[in-house]
């Protein structure tokens, strides 16, 4: 289950949340905007609403 995708400010990457079920646990992933294999950024749960700051 993937949700809350956000493009990076330069438009080259997308960060998103993925969970094993509706109630989580949720982890953050990063993937190139052109496609490819997502890279897991967190371990053990994360915020469901990623943002570029």
Describe the protein.
It is a single chain. By secondary structure, this protein is an all-beta fold. The protein has one domain (2-40). Helix content is 0%, strand content 42%. It has no helices and four strands. The protein has strands spanning 2-7, 13-19, 26-32, 39-40. Strands 1-2-3-4 form a four-stranded antiparallel β-sheet, with no helix packed on it. The protein is globular and about 30 Å long. The model has no long low-confidence stretch (mean pLDDT 87).
Q: Low-confidence runs (pLDDT<50, min 5 residues)? A: none
Q: Give the topology string: H per helix, E per strand.
A: EEEE
DSSP helical segment count: 0
How many distinct folded domains?
1
> How far is the first residue's CA from the last residue's CA?
24 Å
Could you describe the largest sheet, including whether it forms a barrel?
4 strands, antiparallel
Number of strands: 4
What do the pLDDT scores average to? 87
Assess the beta-strand content as a share of residues. 35-45%
Helix content: under 10%
Which sequence of strands runs across the widest sheet? Answer: 1-2-3-4
Rough outline: globular
Radius of gyration: 11 Å
Structural class: mainly beta
Short synopsis of the structure:
The chain has no helices and 4 strands.
């Amino acid at each position: 289950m993937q949700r809350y995708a956000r493009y990076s400010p330069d438009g080259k990457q997308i960060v998103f949340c993925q969970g094993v079920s509706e109630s989580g646990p949720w982890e953050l992933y990063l993937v190139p905007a052109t496609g490819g294999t997502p890279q897991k950024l967190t371990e053990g749960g994360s915020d469901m609403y990623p943002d570029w700051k």
